[in-house]
Amino acid sequence: MADHQYDLVVIGSGPAGEAAAMSAAKKGLRAAVIEKRNVVGGNCTHKGTIPSKALRHAVKQLMRYNTQHLFRALGEPRRLTFPQVMSEVNRVIPRQVEMHTSFYARNRVDLHIGEARFVEAGKLEVHLLDGAVETISAEKVVIATGSRPYRPEDVDFSHPRVYDSDTILDMQHTPKNLIIYGAGVIGCEYASIFAGLGVKVDLINSRGSLLEFLDDEISDALSYHLRDIGVNVRHREEYAKVIPDGRGVTIEMKSGKRIHGDALLWCNGRTGNTQYLGLEEIGLEANHRGQLSVDEHYMSAVEGVYAVGDVIGWPSLASASYDQGRAVANAVIGKGHRIIKDAPTGIYTLPEISSVGKTESELTAAKVPYEVGRAFFKHTARAQISGEKVGMLKILFHIDTLEILGIHCFGAEAAEIVHIGQAVMNQPAPNNSIEFFVNTTFNYPTMAEAYRSAALEGLNRVTRL
Ligand SMILES: Cc1cc2nc3c(=O)[nH]c(=O)nc-3n(C[C@H](O)[C@H](O)[C@H](O)COP(=O)(O)OP(=O)(O)OC[C@H]3O[C@@H](n4cnc5c(N)ncnc54)[C@H](O)[C@@H]3O)c2cc1C
Ligand SMILES: NC(=O)c1ccc[n+]([C@@H]2O[C@H](COP(=O)([O-])OP(=O)(O)OC[C@H]3O[C@@H](n4cnc5c(N)ncnc54)[C@H](O)[C@@H]3O)[C@@H](O)[C@H]2O)c1
Fold it and tell me: Which residues are in the FAD/NAD(P)-binding domain (predicted)?
């Protein structure tokens, strides 16, 4: 007999786990969450999305102060140290924790603090922080254990100058120069943050361009603007050796180059948290990246054991994890659920990037007859007023049906602006039409004006055909 019994137990209190447990409880299931950190919120709140976005917000405010004419009346441009901006971030995290904690009591979801391990498919051991062990049985178990930074064995992460995206948050100084190895989403976001603080950044990319999944024009714009704020972007480079010493870190590249920095931030992908779950006890195996495969009901290869969030790999986003969590709760009770097949991209670099739908390269490869409408933020009244003139919105649409096929945007508030286009694009035909933007009156001055300008520009090209 187990110490506790539930209909559904979730392992992990990040976005995926929280959404699964709260949705299940709202549907009448007796639900619990097991979390090994002594507070809820997951890596999302403590190491990933929230701290990185709060850091970026603080740095962006500093950049505005230092670059806008208005503030010169208050004084000369100023610098803040990394620990100073981190102290602001450390005010945001407890607010998030407090809010997420309140959901548990409100929805009557029990929280067990400790590390979960399978004993058998419907039975878990919870290793409590004081060393005691409790057992929990549940008809259904949802694995939502998230992910951690991938650490190759030949890099010494115990060295005080070698960081990953978790440990960088504890850095107690501001390096003069920083090497960021890995130019994925995390590498590009942190390159923006550190460059904004006045740190010289070497961003090392193993591929030929930044964030290759983006539309080419947006990827080019990101390279240009990162270089513009002082990031040295190096493409097609791979490390041969990482040599940390008392003065910093030197990376020897396969190309023969040597790059030295005061510190190294390693951002080369993530690994699913499955290693201590006792998966072997239930005959479940993770892939080489620690990730689990699931079917269209988010169920793993073992009956009654489900998985959602980063632990199942793509798209590894907080946004998608919340939706997957809600979906798995519906799947468990046999109600219709949505499989999350696509999510917009929202990348909080400086400038911000966001997109939804197809890129030009994808449409060209598929031989779809499309046209492009563009609007530059510098031509909108709102951007001229705010002074945030860097940016562009681009709408890709079908020449014959005028259906919107993709929205690609960079610049201030791009991650918000994209949703206007997404809402239209997700309408069934004939409502998904670029004409919506010329037949609808928008508030003025707003960044939504960019949709009207881009639509008019695109439609002008089509009517010339
Ligand atoms: C630097 C960074 C920035 C990011 N920025 C964004 C962004 O801007 N937008 C976005 O959408 N996504 C972003 N992400 C991705 C996002 O954070 C993740 O997709 C999201 O956190 C995944 O949620 P999750 O619920 O799957 O797991 P996590 O948030 O990883 O939470 C998993 C939880 O499970 C717990 N756990 C693990 N093993 C056990 C065990 N055996 N027993 C008990 N508990 C356990 C962990 O302690 C953790 O609390 C970012 C990620 C990083 C690293
Ligand atoms: N704003 C956001 O949405 C946001 C922000 C940060 C992180 N994240 C999430 O965190 C995850 C991890 O980000 P990351 O930057 O550590 O990793 P990543 O998966 O984006 O890749 C990081 C680097 O590793 C390289 N790489 C990855 N897989 C490779 C492969 N198979 N072969 C060769 N090179 C490869 C990439 O080229 C890149 O340079 C992302 O999947 C993303 O979803 C999202």
Answer: 6-325
Ligand 1 shell residues, CB under 6 Å: 11-17, 34-37, 42-44, 48-49, 52-53, 115-116, 144-147, 165, 186, 273, 276-277, 309-311, 316-319, 321, 348
pTM (2 decimals)? 0.96
Pairing of strands 4-11, 31-35: parallel
Domains of the chain: 2-48+89-149+271-332 (3.50.50.60), 162-268 (3.50.50.60), 351-463 (3.30.390.30)
Ligand nearest to the CA of 273: 1
Classify 177 as helix, strand or coil.
Answer: strand
Which residues are paired to 397 by β-bridges? 371, 404
pLDDT in tens, 345-402: 999 999 999 999 999 999 999 999 999 999 999 999 999 999 999 999 999 999 999 9
The alpha carbon of 236 and the centre of ligand 2 are apart by a number of angstroms equal to: 16
CA distance 44 to 46: 6
Nearest to 165 by CA among 142, 141, 182: 182
d(CA 66, CA 259): 30
- Burial string for 56-68 (b: 16+ CB within 10 Å, else e) reads bbbbbebbebbee
State whether the beta carbon of 348 lies less than 6 angstroms from ligand 2.
yes
The ipTM value here is 0.95
- The torsion angles phi and psi of 75, rounded to 5 degrees, stand at 150, 175
